[in-house]
Design brief:
The protein has 60 residues and is mostly helical. It contains two helices and no strands. This is Vacuolar ATPase assembly integral membrane protein VMA21. Keywords: Cytoplasmic vesicle, Endoplasmic reticulum, Membrane, Transmembrane, Transmembrane helix.
Length: 60
């Protein structure tokens, strides 16, 4: 979770924004939010699968 935003910062500061650290920091924040959103999404999907599994066991 931490590698993506940090590497995004260093890659974008050098190659995309040509030394502009403010834009690189914004890119890293965006990457962190994407990672966090993916984590939350997977938690919801996993929870739904677990609930479906419990409901299936109760039906038997």
């Amino acid at each position: 979770m931490a590698i993506v935003p940090i590497s995004t910062y260093f890659v974008t500061v050098r190659h995309l924004w040509n030394g502009n650290t403010a834009y690189a920091a914004l890119s890293a924040v965006l990457a962190a939010n994407i990672v966090l959103g993916g984590y939350v999404y997977l938690a919801f999907v996993e929870d739904a699968a677990t609930k479906a599994e419990v409901q299936e066991k109760k039906a038997q």
